[in-house]
Every structure is written in structure tokens, then in C-alpha cells.
Amino acid sequence: MAILQVNDIHVYYGSIHAVKGVSFEVNQGEIVTLIGANGAGKSTVLNTVSGLLHPASGSVVFDGKDLKGVAAHKVVEHGMAQVPEGRRVFLQMTVEENLEMGAYTRPRDEIMGSMDDVYRRFPRLKERRRQIAGTLSGGEQQMLAIGRALMSKPTLLMLDEPSMGLAPILVEQIFDIIRELHAGGTTILLVEQNAQAALSIADRAYVLETGKITLSGTGAELMASDKVRQAYLGG
User: Fold this and answer.
1) Distance CA 151, CA 35 (A)
2) Integer distance in angstroms from the first to the last C-alpha of the chain?
3) Contacting residues for 26 by C-beta, under 8 A, at least 6 apart
4) Which one, out of 7, 120, 170, 233, has a CA that is 20 to 30 A from the CA of 140?
5) Smallest Cα–Cα separation from 121: which of 173, 188, 197?
6) Residues 38, 51: contact at Cβ < 8 Å?
7) What does the pLDDT look like over 63-109, one tens digit per residue?
């Protein structure tokens, strides 16, 4: 069953037509990935789904509800959370304060339980819970950004370039975390330039080029595609 349906969205930045009639869906329990070169429109699509941008036309339907005109902070209340590109943690706040910010839609009596869940998943964050987020390493900040999103108990977790700027061993850790979240029942929409890593864990995938979807299929099908191999997997 489709939990997210993106229907023929067109998005502009002024006169620039950044997203041109993109349609796709994410079913309950899937990992779906959008891959493509830098500037292909991947982050614009994700920001439109999460309500940070609004399409000029087309629709985003989440859990049966058309999100037209719904503010981004209200989208979170509907059960969708985004881990933004570049992590965007609150640098002057502690780890714990960042996590609390992720739980602003939740009843206060549920927050400690959710924080315990995040600390179980990310022991490093528990060790550093009183530390100022701006002093964490890039990998730790990425864990914090994911943990902050999980504090809202999302039905759909969206990750925008989670491996960006990380050392290979940390990229592996982040993708292990994504697998674990998926195994635990979280539906995931992943935007990622590391096509190899993204396709290896995706149930289904879409290739975005200059604002349009040019290919779609299972992760395995796109991994085997000559076009994808040549363009994104180094031949």
C-alpha cells in the first residue's frame, strides 16, 4: 500500500524549472531511493515532499492526505520526518537538547522513552549527551541528525545525502543504521549520490536527471542497468 504518492510535481526557483513532472510512490515498509548527479533535483523533490517547498502544480499525498498548503512543521505531526542535507544540527545546543527539539510534536511523558531508544541505537550520542553539538565529528553529527528525526516517531523517514562528507567506514555505519531502521519497520525515502550504497539497500529506485525521472525499477534492476553503471557506478 502506498504511504506516499508524489503526482506530477513541478517546482520552480524563480524562472528556473527545477523539477519537471516528477511522479513516484513509496509503499509501507519499503526503502525507496532517488539517485542522480549533483543538481539533478533530488533535494528539491525531498524538500517539496516535506513541505519546505511548494509545487507550482501536482500533489503530494501522504497517508491518504493531500499535503497542499500544509506547513513543514505540520507535516511532521502527520508522521513524516526529514534528515536534511548537511545535517543541520543546532550547533550551540547539546546533544540532548537537539534530540528534545526533534520531539516537539510529542507528549512530554513520551519523550524520555524515545530518547532512551535513540541512545540504545546510538551509544556514542549517550556518551556525549551533554556535549555541544558543534564540537561533534561529522559522523556523530549525522547520527544526531538521524536521532533527532527519530524523536518524532515518524512513519516515513526521509534522508537527504546522509553519507555526504563522511569517511568510507562511517558511510558503512550510516547505511547499517538505515538497514536496522528498515528492519524495525520504518519506511524510508533516501536521496543519495552514493548510488552503489543506495541501490544495494533499496527495494525500489528512481533515477533523476535534470528534474525528470528517467529510469525506475528495483534496486537490483538499476544496479544491473548498463546506463546506471556507466553514469553512476563507475562503469
Assistant:
1) 27
2) 35
3) 2, 3, 4, 32, 156, 187, 189
4) 233
5) 173
6) no
7) 999 998 888 888 888 889 999 887 788 888 999 989 988 887 777 77
